[in-house]
């Protein structure tokens, strides 16, 4: 092998390494954008009314609320059924109790809906983060495919070049042998 042939092989290897370096830089740049979005999500500001809505929804959807509400209703109904006529403040059709239940339902429903809207927004942001993570994985996979394809191309090219050089060398050896045998 001559110096020129060795230099050609080294130049090809250097070119291959430069291409791989460019692929790595591009993938790192793309991953940094995604990583910045995942590591630094926007800060969530929660107002006082939203905190109250969350607490009401949390309490309104608990067994503690259901049991305490049933106990209060049973006491209310028992007192108004068993009490003397003068002490009954809400006699049998329990109109006042119905009014209070309707008011509680009318106030509680929109508060719970506000809380559910906030939960839905959090779920949407979580889904966006999942999408970004999947996108990052896809970018990494594509980068790996590019690297493998490039390595295969360059290895095949290098093998063909090496084979061509070997064939050249064999031809020169064969020519020298023929000259030597004829002489």
Separate helix tally: 4
What is the residue-averaged pLDDT? 84
Name the beta content range.
under 5%
Q: How do the SSEs run, as a string of H and E?
A: HHHH
Point out poorly predicted stretches: none
Q: Could you say which overall geometry the principal axes of the C-alpha atoms support?
A: rod-shaped
Largest sheet: none
Rg, please? 40 Å
The termini sit apart by 26 Å
Let me know the number of strands: 0
Helix content: over 70%
Instruction: Tally the structural domains.
Output: 1
Structural class: mainly alpha
Question: Could you characterize what this model shows?
Answer:
This protein has 183 residues and is mostly helical. The chain has one domain. The protein is 86% helix and 0% strand. It is built from 4 helices and no strands. The protein has helices at residues 3-39, 48-60, 63-82, 95-182. Helix 1 packs antiparallel against helix 4 (95-182) and helix 2 (48-60) crosses helix 4 (95-182). The two termini are 26 Å apart. The mean pLDDT is 84.
Compact description:
With 183 residues, the protein is mainly alpha-helical. The chain is 86% helix and 0% strand. It has one domain.
Topology:
Elements: H1 3-39, H2 48-60, H3 63-82, H4 95-182
Helix pairs in contact: 1-4, 2-4
